[in-house]
Amino acid sequence: MISPDLAEALRRVETVFGGMTAKPGDGCLYCYGDEELALLAVPRAPLSDAFVRIAFHEVPSHFVDHPAVLRRLLPPFLAYVADGRFDGMGYLPTGLGRTAWQEWPREQADAVRGFLDVWWRETLRVPDPPYGVQAVFELCSDMYGSVTPLLDHWASRRPGGVEDRHLAARAESWIDDLLSDDASLIAPWAAAPDARGPVAELQAWLVEQAPSRLAGHPLLARKVALLALPPEERWIAYSEMVAETS
Asked: How many Cα atoms are found within 13 Å in the side-chain-facing hemisphere of 224?
């Protein structure tokens, strides 16, 4: 069941993007049929879940006006996600992450940001979110093109809540990759050669947040603290820690 806050975020997306269209001739006819593409030019025409999922993740070269197609697809795609019907979690990168949507008109950018903020907040506040924290983290960070908004919300929560239980689970899963400066299992988009920033940001954020948020996980907190060391010192200290705890 969709919460009132998420329903309101969806209504805002529908209000802003619901009447938008894209030219049917813009699409790749090798991947899509004429009838499917023609629906993009019809405001609010129903689109199949399969078409929405695939087209939303398509590379920009498949459409002459890729941002227009994304704007047309946003209301059905985000409704698809919010309803729990999306069976493509982990299917990345998204088309939205390949656009500079933050530079769209303010009303449009605010509607996208509002949905992502609410969806991430509600994912963290429940013990067993429908899609799981990792999948939502990956999808949201891909669409944002950044981990910053997600980490900022985590940091804003009072220590000791369910958000910290999720953080402990994610840190446990991520720590070996972070110690290796590898982001491929954290957020696949962040593993690109030019995306060193998100890895360093997450490492520094965990070093800062770990003392108050991983208090019930002393060994994990010690591992996270190693992220503050230069890479050449990190694994020496890690080996010593493993030998000590063994």
From this structure: 27
Is the confidence at residue 183, as pLDDT, over 80?
no
Note the maximum CA span of the chain.
66
Six-digit token pair at 59?
A: 């590379």
pLDDT for 119-135, tens place per residue? 999 999 999 998 899 98
The tokens for 13 are 């997306």
- Quick one: three-class SS letters along the chain? CCCHHHHHHHHHHHHHHCCCCCCHHHECCCCCCHHHHHHCCCCCCCCCHHHHHHHHCCCHHHECCHHHHHHHHHHHHHHHHHCCCCCCCCCCCCCHHHCCHHHCCHHHHHHHHHHHHHHHHHHHHCCCCCCCHHHHHHHHHHHHCCCHHHHHHHHHCCCCCHHHHHHHHHHHHHHHHHHCCCCCCCCHHHHCCCCHHHHHHHHHHHHHHHHHHCCCCHHHHHHHHHHHCCHHHHHHHHHHHHHHHC
Cβ neighbours of residue 55 closer than 8 Å, sequence gap 6 or more: 27, 32, 69, 73, 95
Beta-carbon count within 10 A of 32 CB? 19
